[in-house]
Amino acid sequence: MKATALRWLLGVALLSLVGATLAFRDRFDATALLAWVENAGAAGPAIFIVIYAAATVLLLPGAVITLAGGALFGPVWGTLWNLSGAALGALLAFLIARHLGADWVARRAGPRLRNLNEGVSAEGWRFVAFVRLVPLFPFNLLNYALGLTRIPLLAYVLASAIFMLPGALAYTWLGYTGRDALAGGADMVRNVLIALALLSALSFLPRLIRRLRTPPMLTVETLKTELESGERVLLLDVRPATDFNGEWGHIAGARSIPLEELPARLDNLEPDRPIRLVCRTDRRSTQAAVMLAKAGFADARVIQGGMTAWRTRGWPMVHAGTRSRDRASSA
């Protein structure tokens, strides 16, 4: 309870600070920043990185700071300090979002948002790379949004640092070429980056779309662990009844609802109960998962490989009228 209250308090404090920062963003002066860092001497780079990271967390425009970094430190060191500040700020925003909101979002996400989260998380660093290369996505807000997913922290950090490099280099070079570029040159660089990123996206988007449309799967090992630990899961076998009671049999505790009968029997299922779907392979169960997701079932997972994978491992199965074990070696 105290942890929840503390999270709410930190969230409100952060929103208040961001709101105040955005209200006075017009007073943000790049020239003053240049003078301040220049006067800091050897501590200038460290101060600049901290300012960049803080600006990222507080949703201040990063392009202006990146241009200023180029004007201050030149193309090489400027790129390094700009990238360091951006990466640090992105990491802080990611951790803040994950700590304050990831669990809340996971508990309240509907089936579509859950599938979206699963798809993004499955892509991992590839998705981070894509959104970092496409400047259409707002950098500051994106850091918080990615923190609400289950993308691994290390993948997020490494992909962000690597794939932010082209943009950081371009903006740093623009700032280095002259402080007058702060006025209008940013749009030119942005447009070039958009064109290059969209070309790379052509090969990436179909893969992501297929991933998002595919219901999340679990391995037979995970299913076996869930069943043996007594978790409250419903194992739904969507093969025809003749297969359920046939030569292969079925997994102990499984409930038979053939795929063709599922639409008419949805009312017999509990929407909040975790459902594990199994068929001979995983084709019919994938269709069943899509059907259940559209009907509002939040946790319907396909068992990858289905009965074939279970049978291959030699695990016990139940036959009609018996409780004998069926080993893969006797197939």
Topology, pairings included?
Layout: H1 2-23, H2 30-38, H3 44-57, H4 62-108, H5 111-123, H6 125-133, H7 139-147, H8 153-163, H9 165-177, H10 181-213, E1 217-218, H11 220-228, E2 234-237, H12 241-244, E3 255-256, E4 275-278, H13 283-294, E5 300-303, H14 306-312
Parallel strand pairs: 1-5, 2-3, 2-4, 4-5
Helix pairs in contact: 2-4, 3-4, 4-7, 4-8, 4-9, 5-10, 6-8, 9-10
Secondary-structure element pattern, one letter each: HHHHHHHHHHEHEHEEHEH
Note the quaternary state here.
single chain
**Tally of domains:** 2
Computed Rg: 26 Å
* Uncertain stretches: 323-331
| First-last Cα distance | 54 Å
Number of strands: 5
Report on this structure.
The protein is mainly α and 331 residues long. It has two domains: 2-213, no CATH class; 217-330, 3-Layer(aba) Sandwich (Oxidized Rhodanese, domain 1), CATH 3.40.250. 64% of the residues lie in helices and 5% in strands. It is built from 14 helices and five strands. It has helices at residues 2-23, 30-38, 44-57, 62-108, 111-123, 125-133, 139-147, 153-163, 165-177, 181-213, 220-228, 241-244, 283-294, 306-312; strands at 217-218, 234-237, 255-256, 275-278, 300-303. Strands 1-5-4-2-3 form a five-stranded parallel beta sheet. The longest helix has 47 residues, at 62-108.
Write a brief caption for the model:
The protein has 331 residues and is mainly alpha-helical. Helix content is 64%, strand content 5%.
What labels describe this entry?
331 residues, mainly alpha, Oxidized Rhodanese, domain 1, 2 domains, 5-stranded parallel β-sheet
